[in-house]
Structures are given as C-alpha cells and as structure tokens.
Amino acid sequence: MTSPTKAEGSGPAVALDPELAATTETVQVKELVGRSPGQLMWIRFKRDRAGVTSACIVLFFIAIGLLAPVISKLYGKDPYTVYADERPELFDSAGVPLQPNGGISGEFWFGLEPGNGYDVFTKLLYGIRNSLGISLAVTIATVLTGVLLGVAAGYLGGKVDFAISRVVDFLLAFPSQLFFIASMPVVVSLFVDPKDETPVYVRVVALIAVQWFLGWMSLARILRGTTLSLAGREFIEAAKVSGASPWRIIRKEILPNVVTPILVQSTYMLPAFVTAEAGLSFLGVGIVEPTPDWGQMFSKASTELVMQNDITYMFFPGISMIIFIVAFNLLGDSVRDAFDPKTAR
Fold first, then answer.
1. How many CB atoms are located within 10 Å of the residue 42 CB?
2. Least buried of 109, 137, 188, 304, by fewest C-beta within 10 Å?
3. pLDDT in tens, 13-36
4. For residues 286 and 295, is the Cβ–Cβ distance under 8 A?
C-alpha cells in the first residue's frame, strides 16, 4: 500500500480521494477545450450591453414589420381607409383632425393624418414593413454581388482583377444620391408607359435595382483587399498543392475567413439603404400614396397643411426612424468589436 506523499516542510500528509481526483481531472479537461471563433464572438457580444439592447430594438422593428397585418387586424383598422370620407365629423373643413394632437385618442392611438385622414398607427406599421423589406432586399443583393466580385478579383487576380477594379472605380465616381433621383423615373418608364399609372411592384423593383447598382462597390473593394492578403497564406498554398480547384479554395478556405467584414459591413449597409429609400420616397420618386412608406410620411409631414396645423404628425415616424438607425449603427459597432476585440470605439 502506497503511503500519501508529503512535501518537505509542509503539514501532515492528506490522502487524496480517487473520485475527487477524477472529478478534478475532468473539470480541468473541460476547461482546456477550445472555443470556436463564433463562440468567442458570441460571448464577447453578450457582454456588450449596448449591443444586446440594440439587437433587441432591431428585432422589435423587424417583428412589428412582419406582424403588421396581424397587429392591424387586432387593432381593427388598416392604412388605406380614408377617414376624411368615412368619418367627416372628425375633421374640420380643411381636413385637419378636430381633436388635439392630431386626433390622438383611444380609438386612434397615433392620431389621424391631415388631409385624407389615414390612421397614423397602421400607416406607420406598414411603412416600416415596406421600407425594411425593400432595404433588406437591396442589402442581400449588394452583399451577394460584393462577395462574388470582390473575392473573385482578389483571388483570381490578373485581367479579372483589373476589369472588376476598373468597374468599381468607375461606379464609385457616380454621385449616388443624384443618380438615385435622376434614374428612378427612367427605370420606371422602362416598364410602364408614362401615361399609365405605375404599379407598386414596378416602383419596388426599380428602388431595389437603382440602389443595388451603386451599392455593392464598397464591400467588393474591402473583400478584394482581404482576399489578396489571404491568397498568399500557407493554408491557401497547401490547398493549391493538394490539387483543390479555385472554386473549392474560395468556398472552403477564403469565404469562412471573410465572414467578419461581410457581417460588419452588412450591419452598416442596411440602415444606409433605409435612409436612402426613405429619401427617395420623400422626394416623390419612390413609393407614393396610398402605399405606406416611412419616407412618404416625412414628405406628408413637410407639407404646409401639416406643418401649420398638426406638427405632432412628424413625431411618431421621426422618433421611430431615429431609434432604428441609431440602434442598427450601434449594433454594427458591437458586431465589429465582438469579432475584433482589439478595435476601440
């Protein structure tokens, strides 16, 4: 029988329980198990209170956009009813709600729109739904294009890199906002005769196409630089020596290593597209009445009738837009910090 060991100059020897020793070794082994980059990113993100709060706010906006028809049905109203005709007793001769604060009441939570008398609450719900839907579609299209062309330019190099880079340089020279405003009527006229009324889906497709056309270059340039730095790494050279095809190397080796810039840039692009889409609708070249839209509500609030008689009409769409944009930008900062903790805000 082996006696318990005793260190020189220490107290009396203590026998080590075999079960306790096995448990201790198991805990130590579990502590030594490594975490994936995704797990480390998630742990760092959860510690960021501003990031978690921003994510909850963004998810809330997405949820109310998706559930707008359900909320509208439970609320008992829709954004298309012209209450100035249905309930004329609620308005004065100029079409302004008689009740104070734009007609806010238990029946109309956010009041009534001056003029046509649309319900502001349901119009805002559907406006958020339409604006986020269009901006999300533009973001997906621009990310896919930027990833495809940026990674191809960085990895293939040569003439492919030269051609894509020159196209990027050419398109970056366009003043994007002026191009959006000038090209929207042109794109719409390609699908619909100017004498006919433009369907909503044509305007939506035109908004997505115009913003996508000048939206993918910044991401493509970032990914080109990142891919160039990866192309000379040892694991890429090893994949080439092993006989892997370029497509397999891009798919298995490069794309997993460019996820960080893709996610970070996506979180910055979507709110930028939301404001761009709202700006086009505000200027009258985007979504028009009676289809609800965030920017269209700002356009309505800037009219003389609303500015002079119901300044509270701007409050709800304005506050909701500010909260959403700020939350999404803070979310982008938090995602960037979670992937790269060395960066400092």
1. 13
2. 304
3. 444 455 555 555 544 444 445 566
4. yes
